Amino acid sequence: MSETLNDFRGWANLLLTFASEDFSPSLIDEAKEWSAKVKETVDQDSAMLKALMCGKYADYDPEDMRWVSRRIFSPARRASYHVARWWVCRDVLLEFSDMLVRDLESVANALGDLQRLDKISAKVEDIRMKRVDRDRATARVRGLAANIVETIEEYPLYLNRAHKALDPAYQYEEPKVWKADIYAFIWDQAAQELMLWGNFGRLCPVPLIRATAERRIWGFLSPKKGSRYEGQAVWFKRETKWYDIVEALGKALYVPPDVISGLYGWTSETIHYSYTRDVDEMWYALAVAERIGAMDLKTETQLIEATDKAIDDLLAKGKIELRPVRTGP
Question: DSSP labels for 137-203?
Fold first, then answer.
């Protein structure tokens, strides 16, 4: 990682606990300086990769969003994928550095508005709304800083991979990077955070609520210790659907299959037809989705038997296959 980006990450890390009381006009000037430095560093890396693309990779066009998007969403890991993947990281980092300047300016504007309202003895309601603006702008700075820190950590990984893909002679040590699957509680927290933010993005929690349910359903069939299938992993066929698993588990579920189906229909109405939802309804739906991970069984033995029976059923229907659990990198 370049010294500039490493230093920028350290500076952004200080903003993770940013509060409005910490604001100083000098922060805006510092953010502008960092934005210029980041652009200079990124431009140098871009020039280096573009030079490697000349000739053999002359048809690569990472500045075309269509070219990039067609490759980053492709399962193929060719040289073009690695170039596109780094270009995405590059563009996002540049956007973040500019956004940070704008968000700090928003904090400054909100604080200035509050000072003016205080001087003219404005209405309590007006002051309260401006405080909301201040708090929202402050929270954006913290959230943006967290995104900047993580994106900078990803940047050299994708830059080195792109460099290696374009120039096989390039040597670098691949870091041991592994990001875990998304667990259900992450969807839970995301939905809760959106709803607690107020009415902005009101419908956004709904697909997250469904994702909570789906993640729990797909995680049901991991063979437990003591299972006949212990030491094996369940692999789902492409055509397998969530309701195949629900049907196989049946009465063992704490949340009945018809309720799960109802939840899916409820989310589909919002996602596909933009039907609005009441706040209490969304919170209750999240509570139901969280409980989909529970089994209506009393003992560990019953849980193992129910899981094994479901695996038997899905194997017989050709919905899954079993493979040995991977134990190495």
Answer: HHHHHHHHHHHHHHHHHHHHHHHHHHHHHH-TT---PPP----PPPPHHHHHHHHHHHHHT-STTTT
